[in-house]
Design goal:
Largest sheet: 5 strands, mixed
Shape: globular
Structural class: mainly beta
Strand content: 35-45%
Number of strands: 42
């Protein structure tokens, strides 16, 4: 199994740089790889033996100009002009900024900092999107992605013009930045524009046009086979909105393909909370939608509450397969979005279903499906799934995989570990800690198949909006054994204020925690002199 896991990471985080750097562990995309397994298999410093209250804690804080919903990314040994080589952590903020910091806080000032705001632009005020969840401004929400071959960081940013014309007040742009300087590349940025034929909500004259105010790009960006994929849902279900998927050429930023999940209806947004669309080695793209009508079996084109398998074909993204729960209509009526979670692709398995995907939603349900034969839709049951598992409450985000184990955390629940055996998930253990509010996406650090640690970060609460984030760590081989929590020594280790659905980044002995206006960095504490 170790070989299979490494196979996934060869197109995720372990890459040879083509612009002058040697091979190093990297984090270039959300959840470490395009399969979205959420596992860093190259962590040689942090172990279950030294991650504890006595030896591990907060080292320093990186202050930035806005809130951080995007997962921090990491490149080693980057040559910064005039500043030498650094291991770099990249941070994107809701104030439409991107920062490159030395990953170990030396220096603590940015190596470079780029703002996407021009003189006549601001970020989008939360009141404009009629949704209180991302306060007080909306700028960069989705996790960027890095192309190591060209040294390019791709970022999707939202802005608001402060001058007329009002018809062009809100805009979204895809930026391509040099990882060494932050300078724009490939003729960027390019404005996001798209339309499809359809009669859905907001359409005019048989055309449905992308609406930059209502469309919310929450899910992470994806780079697959030379294409940068972007996806959209909405803010607080404020319509009209639709699920959009767009592909852009990584070299030229030319728009290559468009897909709309509800061209003749509404909703069907792609949220995925803090996670992103997944892709396999053949370039198939997996995204999940939430809400909206499902009418494909009646000859329609609307994919509400569906896990879609898309493949680029000229100017189109073709839906080559899909999985829709039998109770899709009920899920829509109750706002139990399947698309509240993002898909995870498991490494190859033994048995009749070697290629599995796992997806969870607000249902509350985990679906294990065969991604070679997703099964489409069955009227009476979910028999077209390989397995379904009822959870205590809904799932917002995704899961993590390590060493034959799947880790998942649903709303108001303990972290749970399922062993993967013969293509099925078998409950194994639960953590001793339980989150007080929203679900979260776990992530794993390990040295191959040894020294696994599961990390999870508490989310912003409904009842207590000014709650400090808490970073938890559990032994991945026995998650009932809690190793650490940042609230055990609050004077030393307290993190910033929590946001919703953030995922920590673990790299080279450090844990990067994005919060309100700062990234808190944890690691092994300096040894005390004897």
């Amino acid at each position: 199994m170790r070989f299979v896991q490494r196979k996934f990471h060869t197109y995720g985080i372990v890459i040879v740089f083509a612009f002058g750097l040697t091979a190093h562990p990297q984090m270039t995309t959300a959840q470490y790889d395009n399969a979205r397994t959420g596992a860093d298999l190259n962590e040689k410093t942090l172990t279950p033996h030294n991650v504890n209250q006595q030896q591990f804690g907060k080292l320093f804080t990186l202050k930035v100009d806005g809130d951080i919903y995007a997962q921090p990314l990491f490149l080693a040994n980057v040559s910064i002009p005039g500043k030498g080589r650094h291991d770099v952590v990249f941070i994107a903020t809701e104030h439409d900024s991107v920062y490159a910091f030395d990953a170990y806080g030396n220096p603590s000032t940015p190596l470079w900092h780029v703002s996407f705001l021009k003189e006549d632009e601001t970020t989008v005020p939360a009141r404009d999107v009629s949704c209180p969840f991302t306060q007080p401004e909306v700028g960069i929400t989705s996790t960027p992605v890095i192309d190591t071959k060209s040294g390019t960081l791709y970022v999707l940013a939202r802005t608001k013009r402060t001058r007329p014309p009002a018809s062009e007040q809100y805009r979204q742009h895809l930026h391509a930045l040099s990882v060494t300087t932050g300078m724009e590349k490939a003729g960027g940025p390019v404005e996001i524009q798209a339309s499809v034929h359809g009669s859905g909500a907001g359409s005019k004259g048989g055309n449905l046009v992308f609406e930059p105010l209502r469309e919310n790009p929450r899910a992470a960006l994806l780079l697959s086979n030379g294409l940068v994929y972007l996806t959209w849902g909405s803010s607080c279900d404020v319509g009209p909105y639709h699920g959009w998927v767009m592909a852009y050429d990584a070299k030229t930023l030319q728009q290559k393909a468009i897909f709309n999940t509800s061209p003749d209806a509404d909703d069907s947004g792609i949220w995925a909370s803090d996670t992103g669309p997944a892709s396999d080695k053949d370039g198939n793209i997996f995204v999940a939608t939430g809400n909206g009508s499902f009418d494909v079996t009646a000859g329609g084109r609307d994919y509400g509450d569906t896990l879609l398998k898309l493949h680029p074909d000229g100017r189109d993204l073709k839906p080559v397969d899909y999985f829709t729960p039998f109770n899709a209509r009920e899920l829509d009526e109750k706002d139990h979005d399947l698309g509240s979670g993002g898909p995870m692709l498991l490494p190859d398995q033994a048995g009749p279903h070697p290629h599995l995907a796992v997806i969870g939603g607000k249902g509350p349900m985990i679906y294990v499906v065969d991604r070679d034969r997703l099964g489409h839709f069955h009227q009476e049951s979910n028999s077209h799934a390989v397995q379904t598992i009822t959870t205590s409450r809904g799932i917002y985000g995704s899961m993590a995989y390590w060493n034959h184990n799947v880790y998942v955390l649903s709303d108001y629940d303990s972290l749970r570990d399922f062993e993967v055996k013969d293509g099925k998930l078998i409950f194994k253990a639960a953590s001793s800690f339980k989150l007080e509010d929203h679900a979260a996406t776990p992530t794993v650090s390990a040295n191959g198949d040894k020294n696994g640690i599961v990390w999870v970060m508490s989310s912003k609460g409904w009842a207590s909006p000014d709650r400090r984030a808490v970073l938890y760590a559990a032994d991945a081989s026995d998650i009932s054994r809690q190793l650490y929590a940042s609230n055990q020594n609050q004077a030393r280790d307290s993190a910033g204020y929590a946001l919703r659905f953030n995922v920590p980044t673990i790299m080279n002995g450090h844990v990067y925690v994005g919060t309100k206006g700062e990234v808190d960095v944890y690691g092994l504490l300096p040894a005390r002199p004897r």
